[in-house]
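A quick aside before the break. I want you to see a complete sequence-to-structure record at least once, exactly as it would be stored in a machine-readable document. Don't worry about memorizing anything.
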Amino acid sequence: MAEMRDGLFIDGVWRSSQARFADVNPYSGETLAEVAEASQEDIGAALDAAAPPAIAPYERAQVLLGARERLKARREAAIGLVVAETGFTRRDATGEFDRCLETLALSAEEAKRLAGEVVPFAGAPGGAGRWGHTRLYPVGTVVCITPFNAPLNTVAHKIAPAFAAGNAVILKPSEKAPLSAALLVEALAEAGAPAGSLALLHGAGAAIVPPLLADPRPGFYAFTGSTEVGRIVHRSAGLRRTQMELGSVSATIALADADPAAVARAVAQSGYRKAGQVCTSVQILLVEAPLAPALTDALTAAVEALTHGDPSSDDTDLGPVISAAAGTRIREWVAAAEAAGARLLRGGGGGGAMVPPVLLDRVGPDMAVTCREIFGPVVSIIPVADLDEAVGRVNASPYGLATGIFTNDLARAEHAVDRLETGAVHVNQTSSARADLMPYGGWKDSGFGHEGPAYAIRQMSREKLVSYRTS
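That is the input. The structure line, written in tokens, reads:
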């Protein structure tokens, strides 16, 4: 594979531009590259060139598998790039890389079994002698808009199913992690993605996304980001379909019979992984009152044991958040919570993008740390009287992405599963549990539609009914 690209990719060609923006390492402040910024002419060129790949599903699968092999050949370079762009630890960046490989493989498998369904016309009145089936066709062009916090795998979850379904793809990745996205695009191009089937546009979303929404040619928009921006994208898309992976204030519930040590280990990992910058990160831990003292002690000790510092070190558990501005906002929210009566069990201090892991209790429902998505390494413990109170607190949120629940009582777990208004419930796992083959999507203000290649491919396809009469 060639040296890392810092340009735009349009109609099978890498191109530069006069306008550039800095890709900055959030830990060191070093400028990693000056990245080409797409102009209005570049956006128009990408739209003009977009053309679904005129190759069969098997060939599309081979392109995806070929890209996977090309990425594997640059494993260490890719992991190092994710660490440098995002500030994620080597452990988190390695998980990100390995999951991206899995998503490419899953998408390739699904491309090879792309099929409709037999329609049982004989089961309808007067249906004897009629036969039918459905066929899947690409929607045409899919616009993919992705965030910094999964700069390889979320990009793969958007563009690989879209390509597998036979669509052209226009990718607008986060300007905070442009080179990681470019690495994946380059791998696909070298693996044989036809010219016009894949475009990469770098730059600020406010400049690039509106023209992509205003143009009538894209047939689908796949977006991961904030609920506020998601509303704009969905509204602007009109009658065209969208996939919205939006914000969350994710909660995990621990009932009185749960093992406090096991819950503490799980929450310490999933609440602070990627410095808490994951939509399903545990932000609120709802603990049934009898377990609260033991679990608070266990989680306080687990958070105290986390190492915070240089993300390139193998011993570091969490590095910086994505920017100094994000760090300032997180510290302000924590300080406001303390001023309103919250107790800081661990954390505090830091500066710039460095936010040591924070653990709070005695928090109120109207504090920003509990009712708004903090997207940082902050977990709040909230004792509850019983399971019904915990479910009520989760359901009171405008968000509904995922909930975890720890208990050994299957009946109580099933009671929660049926009542929780979230797109996923993970029993004896945290809200952050995920496998890349599963349907991943939210309810309410957390969005709609699903990632997971098998599910996304169906959404990124148009279905046509074909029926026959033989008698």
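Two observations worth writing down. Residues 276 and 377 are 4 Å apart (CA to CA). The two ends are 59 Å apart (CA to CA). We'll return to this after the break.
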